[in-house]
Amino acid sequence: MGANNGKNYGSEGKGSSSISSDVSSSTDHTPTKAPKNAATSEDSDLSMRTLSTPSPALICPPSSQACINGKDSSTSSSSVTGETIAMVHAPPTTCLPHPHIRPASRQQKEQAPIDILPDHSFIQIFSHLPTNQLCRCARVCRRWYNLAWDPRLWRTIRLTGDMVNVDRALRILTRRLCQDTPNVCLMLETVIVSGCRRLTDRGLYTIAQCCPELRRLEVSGCYNISNEAVFDIVSRCPNLEYLDVSGCSKVTCISLTREVSVKLSPLHGKQISIRYLDMTDCFVLEDEGLHTIAAHCTQLTHLYLRRCVRITDEGLRYLVIHCGAIKELSVSDCRFVSDFGLREIAKLESRLRYLSIAHCGRITDVGIRYVAKYCTKLRYLNARGCEGITDHGLEYLAKNCAKLKSLDIGKCPLVSDGGLEFLALNCFNLKRLSLKSCESITGRGLQIVAANCFDLQLLNVQDCEISVEALRFVKRHCKRCVIEHTNPAFF
């Protein structure tokens, strides 16, 4: 499969300047965090060898005009049904002029403040830009072209938006990044294309074939990708540690391709190095698929199966047998998970730090007791909507998991002030507590918590019958605490 795709892509030459990519101009967003791997201080060796290589302009407004070789020519992009066709351009010779701005004199250009910045400052600024804006900067002038394609800025590709032709964009970008090492991109470690619904298996095949050093892949919400493409990624990228396929409804399993499995048998299960796996909303995932995942991804430490509604206690049994290093696990809204499933999860013992069982209606105090007895280093528990939990379950939890920092027991109508008293007298490190819609909670229970848990930072008592005096008492004793409430008299 990979060979066939490679043959198709190879028909478009590296030096072609007529290759186009479909990218929506509405996807021009600035990320909230800078890429972790971007360098900030070292000067780069700026040679002119890259000037003959075309650069893809991922964002090219339909009305823009390009200035090539000092002559005005019409732009090579056109708007079609909300998309933008952006051609691959050679490095610019001059800055792009604005039609209503008089060109600056040579003296003014030389005195432009931005030209005074050293190269490493430019690289630091560029490191905060998403991929589409970085490609746009590469079209400004020769110097920016060289700086924008500095290898340190291309450890991450980040594309978002429904209108982005991600398959074509990835093909063009990887071809440009492979110019020094033909057919292999050794610098790219992270690809984030979350929410790009036009991503298909072809795009993932491109990444699998060209990026053997890939460590992180996020394709959440890309529901057109299938198992085959994911298998190809994990088989060809042995260093992949972080995989987010949440919302990819066609993905039902994570495994090596059949060819690789045969070659590595019987030790192939240890060849997938994934540690973080998010399969939220992969609602077709069943126990058999979870069994395969557990057998192949034995190094898992973080696993999220939110709303994988077909998972049962049997699937969790397989998981614990093969993946004994799990620290964080979420089975929220898995309605078939019961106390027997929690008994299996409890076998993770002190390694488990985070557990979410929200809206698992079959869980009662019995399951909570299993977890509390064996998972003594638990720090986070989300049991919202588990209506079978009572004060007895909270007592087991509080006495055995004294280092608990975050607890959500909202919509548990059988929890009362007695359960809060056990928490207050044992879990002094509690920082976040949600009691939303707990009908039996009163101001007395909150006062006991506030008097003992001074580090409380967030308290949710929405839809609870709590007096203004009790809320004020909490505020006095826990001054850094943010209180979420529905009492209009308290502000």
Automatic annotation (TrEMBL):
Part of the SCF (SKP1-CUL1-F-box) E3 ubiquitin-protein ligase complex SCF(FBXL7) composed of CUL1, SKP1, RBX1 and FBXL7. Interacts with AURKA; interaction takes place during mitosis but not in interphase. Interacts with BIRC5; this interaction allows BIRC5 to be polyubiquitinated by the SCF(FBXL7) E3 ubiquitin-protein ligase complex. Substrate recognition component of a SCF (SKP1-CUL1-F-box protein) E3 ubiquitin-protein ligase complex. During mitosis, it mediates the ubiquitination and subsequent proteasomal degradation of AURKA, causing mitotic arrest. It also regulates mitochondrial function by mediating the ubiquitination and proteasomal degradation of the apoptosis inhibitor BIRC5. It comes from the Eukaryota. CDD domains: F-box_FBXL7. Residues 10-26 have a biased composition (Low complexity). This is F-box/LRR-repeat protein 7. One of its GO terms (cellular component) is centrosome. One of its GO terms (biological process) is protein polyubiquitination. Keywords: Cell cycle, Cell division, Cytoplasm, Cytoskeleton, Leucine-rich repeat, Mitosis, Repeat, Ubl conjugation pathway. It is found in: Cytoplasm, Cytoskeleton, Microtubule organizing center, Centrosome. InterPro entries: F-box-like_dom_sf, F-box_dom, FBXL15_LRR, Leu-rich_rpt_Cys-con_subtyp, LRR_dom_sf. Residues 111-157 form the F-box domain. Belongs to the FBXL7 family. PANTHER family: F-BOX_LRR-REPEAT PROTEIN 7 (PTHR13318:SF50), PARTNER OF PAIRED, ISOFORM B-RELATED (PTHR13318). SMART domains: FBOX (SM00256), LRR_CC (SM00367). Pathway: Protein modification; protein ubiquitination. Residues 1-57 are annotated as: Disordered. The lineage of its organism: Eukaryota, Metazoa, Chordata, Craniata, Vertebrata. SUPFAM superfamilies: F-box domain, RNI-like.
